[in-house]
Design goal:
heterodimer; A: 66 residues; mainly alpha; 3 helices; flat; B: 692 residues; alpha/beta; six-stranded antiparallel β-sheet; 58% helix; elongated
């Protein structure tokens, strides 16, 4: 799935990166969450979404430096 | 992605018609669909909105912009109105749309949407199951979740595989709508545009989802960890934040409602001002001025009538004969020749005896020549002289009339007729035409002023009422503006409080995160929430600036040289403006129709370009009645726009065959929509266009 344009546009991407650094997260985390939300939108279901969010965040925690 | 097919059944004037679009070639994206007014251009545009998005597309259709998103009852009424009135009860109304990937979009798939509406009476939608939607992706029918409303589920899926509905007006629009963008371009409009441009709606959805996740995780954690002081502190702050968020949400809802209210009142104000202008202008002094103008027009009309009457009197007979002028002139000339011949002949005959007396003097016996002849020979000679004299004017010359038709018109009378006829056929005929034209103009002017004058009799009452309404509206608008400013300040302060509170929550959460993994995840979720809030806020000014650059680029290209070197400004909370290099600024809404239309088209092109989506542009009547200098520039701007397909719906007076020649290379395909009869409806001929 294509990420939203703000992750592709060079200027917007810089801004996203800076804000992510400020809040000690990374772009991949946001992209993964966008993809998850997009996958669920239109499907009419939300069941299983919190677990998937937890998985995405755990994946980030495991790759993030302490 | 390009529109590869549009099949319409029982849709407005279309009985059963398919537009099959060729795959676009690089450098020739333009498709021209020619149709006279009322023959199917707007129907084409509406078919895209309603065929793709159903009831969620209605608010983008002309005449339905005030409809709420997904408003079912207005939608039913609209669909019943859009149905072809000659359709039989059994036939559904159907829009079948296919978008295909271009050769360079290898990872994309064809998307086809078939939307059908079923009717019970001739034009009454069925109460239940009146609408069905079939969505095909890559030629496979997409199964929609059985548990949800199929129309809404289809809409959400279509937005996902194609593009969001609120992006559509950037790609499918009419020139008039574009022009009206100015009036509707409040802060809300820009905010919406910004959301569309960088996919910030997805970020919004992510923020909501993460917030839901946090609430759920906290509810789980709270039950087990009530003993922890830190946890209790956290929960209290989170509760406080939730309340604050709720309050901000309510304030924002109130803000949106007020802005919509203000937009409505602005539209009403514009309508009242137009109405006031129609009733004889905004100024009260116009009444007296109009009265004087009317008197003047009456006199001009009376003068013109008198002038024409005098001319007719003077040229009466000439005018009566003017249609036979040449025949009459020829006859009169022949009669003049006959008169002259007859005069000479008569003179000779009358002088015959005098001539004979000279030739044969009496007494003949004494004449040296005649005296030698006998009486008989002299008589014979006399007879010969008489015959010779008569032969001088016999037969009459060839230009002589055989008889007199205008027996009474002789001598001076004839010369007068010649002069009158020459006046009528020469310069005086032009005078007569000019007098008739002047009279016609004077009568028209007089009639127009008379009608205006009739209306102006009621002017004081009507205009006073209109002025009162306008004053009341202005007061209401000022109140709304003040309330909006207060609300904005309150939202700003609440957001600052929220920011501080979120930082506190983050700190406590980080402390708790050191204890166990779930708390760690919640701490990260907190950070995500704060990052998204910052991102959404900071993306707005950046995208607005970007939009300004793009709108300027398109606007300056389309508009005339007066605007070179300047830039379009989209100030927050105000209507768009143009800034010249010397720093002078002027709001577009105070400019003429041409500038407003150019801005609207430039804004639409900029928005379409900045979304970075390969959606075909479909523009209904893009040029309107613009002048000949502006038309080719705008058309060229469309042709050069970075899109695979630009479909232009036009009538014969707009994108004329002559104009098409100017952008011939960019034209990939043409269609001509013709209307045969009410029973048969509109037909489409591919490869055809208006004739020169």
């Amino acid at each position: 799935m294509k990420p939203p344009p703000c992750f592709e546009d060079p200027e917007a991407k810089k801004m996203v990166k800076r804000i992510c650094e400020q809040h000690q997260i990374d772009i991949e985390l946001l992209k993964d969450l966008c993809e998850l939300v997009s996958l669920y939108s239109g499907s009419g279901r939300r069941f299983g979404m919190p677990d998937e969010i937890a998985t995405i965040i755990s994946r980030f925690i495991s790759r993030a430096p302490e | 992605m390009y529109l590869s097919k549009l099949h319409l059944r029982n849709w407005r004037t279309y009985a059963d018609v398919a537009f099959d679009f060729d795959e676009p070639h690089r450098g020739s994206p333009v498709v021209l669909v020619g149709a006279l007014n009322g023959r199917g251009k707007t129907s084409f545009l509406m078919a895209l909105y309603l065929g793709i998005f159903g009831r969620f597309g209605l608010r983008y259709c002309e005449g339905y912009t005030a409809a709420a998103n997904g408003d079912s009852s207005t939608y039913r009424h609209a669909i019943e109105g859009f149905r072809r009135d000659m359709a039989t009860r059994e036939e559904p109304t159907e829009i079948d749309i296919t978008f295909a990937p271009t050769i360079s979009e290898l990872d994309e798939q064809e998307v086809r949407i078939v939307r059908r509406w079923h009717f019970t009476g001739k034009n009454s939608l069925k109460q239940n199951d009146s609408e069905e939607v079939l969505l095909y992706v890559g030629k496979k029918l997409v199964k929609l979740p059985a548990e949800s409303d199929p129309i809404t589920a289809a809409y959400e899926r279509i937005e996902k595989v194609l593009f969001p509905a609120h992006v559509a007006p950037a790609f499918f629009f009419d020139g008039e709508q574009a022009q009206r963008l100015i009036e509707n371009m409040g802060e809300t409009g820009i905010r919406k545009a910004v959301e569309v441009m960088f996919g910030t709606k997805v970020l919004d959805d992510v923020a909501k989802t993460v917030s839901e996740y946090l609430s759920r995780a906290r509810a789980n954690a709270g039950g087990a960890k009530k003993t922890s002081d830190r946890q209790q502190q956290l929960e209290s702050k989170v509760k406080e934040r939730e309340e604050l968020n709720l309050r901000i949400g309510k304030l924002q809802e109130e803000h949106v409602r007020l802005e919509q209210d203000k937009d409505g009142k602005e539209r009403e104000r514009a309508r009242l001002q137009e109405e006031l202008a129609r009733w004889g202008g905004a100024a009260g002094a116009d009444a007296a001025k109009l009265e004087a103008e009317y008197d003047k027009a009456l006199k001009a009309k009376s003068d013109a009538e008198a002038s024409l009457t005098a001319l007719v009197k003077r040229l009466g007979m000439g005018l009566a004969l003017s249609r036979l002028e040449q025949a009459v002139v020829n006859q009169l000339k022949a009669e003049e020749a006959r008169e002259s011949w007859e005069g000479l002949r008569r003179g000779t005959i009358e002088n015959k005896e005098k001539v004979l007396a000279v030739a044969m003097p009496e007494p003949a016996e004494k004449d040296p020549l005649l005296g030698q002849l006998s009486d008989d020979a002299r008589q014979k000679l006399r007879n010969r002289f008489v015959e010779a004299l008569e032969r001088i004017y016999n037969p009459p010359p060839p230009n002589c009339a055989p008889d007199f038709l205008f027996g009474h018109v002789r001598g001076d009378s004839r010369r007068k007729v010649f002069a009158t006829l020459s006046e009528v056929s020469g310069t005086n005929a032009a005078q007569a035409q000019s007098a008739v034209r002047k009279l016609r103009e004077a009568r028209d002017a007089c009639d127009a002023l008379k009608a205006k004058n009739e209306r102006i009799k009621h002017l004081p009452k009507v205009t006073n009422e209109l002025r009162d309404s306008l004053a009341a509206l202005n007061d209401e608008n000022q109140q709304i503006t003040r309330r909006l400013a207060l609300l904005e300040a309150e939202v700003k302060k609440s957001k600052a409080d929220l920011h501080t509170l979120s930082e506190d929550i983050g700190r406590v959460q980080e402390e708790l995160a050191r204890l166990e993994p779930e708390q760690k995840r919640m701490a990260v979720a907190e950070r995500i929430g704060r990052a998204l809030t910052d991102l959404l806020e900071q993306l707005q000014p950046m995208t607005t600036r970007r939009l300004e650059e793009k709108v300027t680029e398109h606007f300056v290209r389309i508009a005339d040289k007066r605007f070179r070197g300047g830039k379009v400004c989209l100030p927050p909370g105000a209507t768009p403006e143009f800034e010249w290099p010397d720093g002078n600024r002027r709001a577009f809404e105070t400019m003429g129709g041409f500038e407003k239309r150019s801005f609207g088209i430039a804004f639409s092109l900029a928005l379409a370009g900045i979304t970075q989506r390969r959606v075909p542009l479909v523009i209904d009547t893009p040029l309107g009645n613009a002048d000949s200098e502006y038309r080719p520039r705008t058309l060229q701007a469309f042709a050069e726009f970075d899109s695979d397909q630009v479909i232009i719906l036009t009538h014969d007076q707009e994108v004329t065959p002559l104009l098409v020649r100017a952008v011939k290379k960019a034209v990939n395909q043409t269609f001509l929509v013709t209307f045969k009869s009410r029973e048969e409806g509109s037909f489409v001929e591919a490869g055809e266009y208006f004739e020169e």
